[in-house]
């Protein structure tokens, strides 16, 4: 089974994790688990392996199972390897009304992958997600923390082209440049 | 144009920064509030008639008055910024454009409740907004609006942002509390209610972003003045998220009581249906509320104009009415297949069920499967009745209202569009290649 590379937080991530844990009352630092899993996903290349989650458990001084059960409940945590650039297309009602299905089909044929798959060069993973609170800009998709709204086929093409050209490091929801205490 | 209480300064360049926010009257409500006692603030909010903007419409002041102040346990205010109800995107907009409005509301509300530690729980997908809020909170600390001995009053408040991980159910207040404690988002059985035993088993109030932001104009103008806006028991203004087949999707702050017809067709709001098409149906308050066909959303069963208010939208009960809910207004034109739309919604609820109660976990799965087979031409007329029975067996029989929220769209779609379901079952081919959206995504001009 594949594993996260570099299972260790950078100094910045460590400092931020400590700061976040300090926000909750005495003995309640477990509250910080979701924010810290976001940091872990950013630090570990976009996904969480069991060893990566064990690291979080040690860091937070909680049981590994407490981390697994949380990481597996929330849809933003990838428990399998993903491409550098995870494309999350909203598929719910309002976006569907505005053509989300065809946006997904378009990306599938453009990248030659199905929903849930990663391109062979490891650049893109395609996911569908539920409503992202951007219904006024439907159809839409998210990459990292960026919302791309009012999509058209042409717009999608140029967005993909852009990511292909400019992505060197994996893009995470918790942006790398925001990992500072 | 109706009054703008929340969005008045949204067009101001730099309103997300504290100095600009202050130039436009920001934090004056806070100074006013500190001249009152916490109980006087609660009374103002009761007098305003404000009802929760998160979906259930429970009176905010009343909720505050339930919080246990006797036991001496620490009290918490948690802002529900999980905004995940399909069709709803107002809280995101409010926090992104004017974060200090929410922060000012949080400080006043926390003071009223006697909370010294408060959280804004924001959905994980909105991390970019989380960073906007964090920056604004840092500014507020810097200015002495947060921290110890705020403005010399002796009142202490720590306010933090907290992020979710992607789960609609965490918008339900007890699931949100579980999630904030670092667990899976499984709703708790009530009672006890959060006002008695919430976060870390201490008294807690959970309020929606818009509810908390509205406390600012209420304090500024006084509860009684606020209560003069609106209609009946629907006081004040409300942010409506408008989307779907309309010319001008977006956020509109309306005075409650605006006629639905004006909201849909006036150029000040949605601007009518795209491409000159006809209105078919509306889901008026987020995906969970009953869908209504055009004739029933524009006029009540009695033939009176339907208004954008809690009472008017509910007029006729579920037989012919709906709910204001979260104000997520989803408009569908004549090309929309109600069956396909229902499949989409049902898949959503199945995907988002936390799985604790069998009627919700199994029922949503069944309903999705049945709709899937209807969609693919394998449905029978009996399936329509089966769907009806299934939704009835979920409604009211679960721990949290997600079960009801999954049942109501099914019930209302069948109630108002049964003939279309039957036609779909008998002639599925008719519906296969119908495009229910404009070819705008093919970069062609709108008709
Ligand atoms: C499944 C489900 C999802 C919900 N999602 C949200 C939400 O995203 N935002 C919100 O404010 N309330 C949501 N609610 C309502 C909350 O449980 C709660 O009533 C609300 O936050 C209270 O705030 P208010 O009184 O200010 O409206 C949801 C309820 C349910 C059952
Ligand atoms: S109704 Fe559904 S979402 Fe709510 S507690 Fe039960 S299983 Fe979970």
Describe this protein's structure.
The complex is a heterodimer of chains A (181) and B (447). Chain A has two domains: 11-79, Arc Repressor Mutant, subunit A, CATH 1.10.10.1590; 85-166, Glutaredoxin (3-Layer(aba) Sandwich), CATH 3.40.30.10. With 181 residues, chain A is α+β, with helices and mostly antiparallel strands. Helix content of chain A is 40%, strand content 10%. In chain A, α2 packs across α3 (50-60) and α3 (50-60) packs across α4. Chain A has a four-stranded mixed sheet with strand order 2-1-3-4, covered by helices on one side. Chain B contains 19 helices and 13 strands. In chain B, the strands form four sheets. In chain B, strands 8-7-13-10-11 form a five-stranded mixed sheet. In chain B, β10 and β11 form a beta hairpin. Chain B starts with 17 loop residues before the first helix and ends in a 15-residue tail after the last helix. At the A-B interface, α2, α4 and α5 of A face α7, β3, β7, β13 and α15 of B. Bound molecules: flavin mononucleotide and iron/sulfur cluster (SF4).
Main features:
heterodimer; A: 181 residues; alpha+beta; Arc Repressor Mutant, subunit A; Glutaredoxin; 2 domains; 4-stranded mixed sheet; 7 helices; 40% helix; globular; B: 447 residues; alpha/beta; Rossmann fold; Ubiquitin-like (UB roll); de novo design (two linked rop proteins); 3 domains; 19 helices; 43% helix; binds flavin mononucleotide; binds iron/sulfur cluster
What structural category arises from helix and sheet content of chain A? alpha+beta
- Percentage of helical residues of chain B? 40-55%
**Approximate helicity band of chain A:** 25-40%
The CATH topology name of the largest domain in chain A reads: Glutaredoxin
Give a quick account of the main beta sheet of chain B: strands, pairing sense, barrel closure: 5 strands, mixed
Radius of gyration of chain B, taken over Cα atoms and rounded to an integer in Å: 22 Å
Name of the top-level CATH class of the largest domain in chain A? Alpha Beta
Strand line-up across the major sheet of chain A: 2-1-3-4
Radius of gyration of chain A: 17 Å
Bound molecules: flavin mononucleotide, iron/sulfur cluster
Poorly predicted parts of chain A: none
| The named CATH superfamily of the largest domain in chain A | Glutaredoxin
Give the overall pLDDT of chain A as a whole number. Answer: 96
Q: What number of domains of chain B?
A: 3
Work out the oligomeric state of the chains in this entry: heterodimer
Question: What is the overall silhouette of chain A?
Answer: globular
Principal-axes shape call of chain B: globular
CATH class of the largest domain in chain B: Alpha Beta
């Amino acid at each position: 089974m594949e594993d996260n590379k570099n299972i260790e937080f950078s100094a910045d991530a460590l400092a931020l994790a400590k700061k976040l844990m300090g926000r909750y009352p005495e003995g309640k630092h477990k509250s910080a688990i979701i924010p810290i899993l976001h940091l872990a996903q950013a630090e570990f290349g976009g996904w969480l392996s069991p060893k990566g989650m064990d690291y979080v458990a040690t860091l937070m001084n909680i049981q590994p199972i407490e981390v697994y059960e949380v990481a597996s409940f929330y849809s933003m945590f990838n428990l399998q390897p993903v491409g550098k650039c995870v494309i999350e297309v909203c598929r719910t009602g309002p976006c569907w009304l505005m053509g989300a299905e065809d946006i997904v089909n378009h990306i599938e044929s453009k990248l030659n992958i199905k929903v849930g798959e990663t391109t062979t060069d490891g650049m893109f993973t395609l996911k569908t997600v539920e409503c992202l609170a951007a219904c006024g800009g439907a159809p839409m998709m998210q990459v990292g923390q960026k919302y791309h709204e009012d999509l058209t086929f042409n717009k999608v093409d140029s967005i993909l082209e852009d990511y292909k050209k400019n992505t060197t490091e994996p893009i995470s929801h918790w942006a790398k440049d925001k990992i500072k205490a | 144009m109706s009054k703008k209480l929340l969005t008045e300064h949204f067009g101001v360049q730099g309103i997300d920064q504290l100095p600009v926010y202050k130039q436009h009257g920001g934090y004056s409500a806070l100074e006013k509030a500190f001249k009152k006692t916490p109980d006087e603030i609660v009374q103002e909010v009761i007098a305003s008639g404000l009802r929760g903007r998160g979906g259930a419409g429970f009176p905010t002041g009343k909720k505050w008055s339930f919080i246990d102040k006797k036991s001496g346990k620490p009290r918490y205010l948690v802002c529900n910024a999980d905004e995940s109800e399909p069709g709803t995107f107002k809280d995101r907009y409010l926090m992104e454009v004017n974060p200090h409005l929410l922060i000012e509301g949080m400080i006043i509300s926390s003071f009223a409740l006697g909370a010294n530690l408060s959280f804004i729980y924001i959905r994980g997908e909105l991390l970019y907004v989380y960073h906007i809020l964090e920056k604004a909170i840092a500014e507020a600390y810097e200015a002495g609006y947060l921290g110890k001995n705020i403005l010399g009053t002796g009142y202490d408040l720590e306010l933090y942002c907290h992020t979710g991980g992607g789960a609609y159910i965490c918008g339900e207040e007890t699931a949100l509390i579980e999630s904030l404690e670092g667990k899976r988002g499984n709703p708790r059985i009530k009672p006890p209610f959060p006002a008695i035993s919430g976060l870390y088993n201490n008294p807690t109030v959970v309020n929606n972003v818009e509810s908390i932001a509205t406390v600012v104009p209420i304090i500024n103008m006084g509860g009684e003045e606020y209560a003069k806006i609106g209609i009946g028991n629907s006081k004040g203004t409300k942010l409506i998220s408008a989307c779907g087949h309309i010319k001008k999707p977006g956020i509109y702050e309306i005075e409650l009581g605006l006629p639905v017809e004006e909201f849909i067709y006036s150029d000040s709001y949605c601007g009518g249906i795209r491409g000159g098409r006809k209105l078919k149906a509306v889901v008026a308050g987020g995906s969970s509320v009953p869908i209504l066909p055009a004739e029933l959303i524009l006029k009540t069963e009695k033939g009176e104009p339907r208004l954008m208010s809690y009472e008017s939208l509910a007029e006729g009960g579920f037989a012919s009415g709906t709910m204001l809910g979260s104000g997520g207004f989803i408009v569908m034109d004549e090309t929309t297949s109600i069956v396909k739309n229902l499949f989409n919604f049902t898949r959503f609820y199945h995907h988002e069920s936390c799985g604790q109660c069998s009627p919700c976990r199994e029922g949503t799965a069944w309903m999705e499967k049945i709709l899937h087979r209807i969609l693919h031409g394998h449905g029978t007329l009996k399936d329509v009745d089966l769907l009806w029975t299934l939704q009835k067996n979920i409604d009211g029989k679960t721990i949290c209202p997600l079960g009801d929220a999954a049942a109501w769209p099914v019930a209302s779609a069948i109630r108002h569009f049964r003939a279309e379901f039957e036609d779909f079952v008998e002639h599925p081919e008719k519906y296969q290649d119908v495009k229910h959206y404009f070819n705008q995504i093919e970069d062609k001009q709108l008709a």
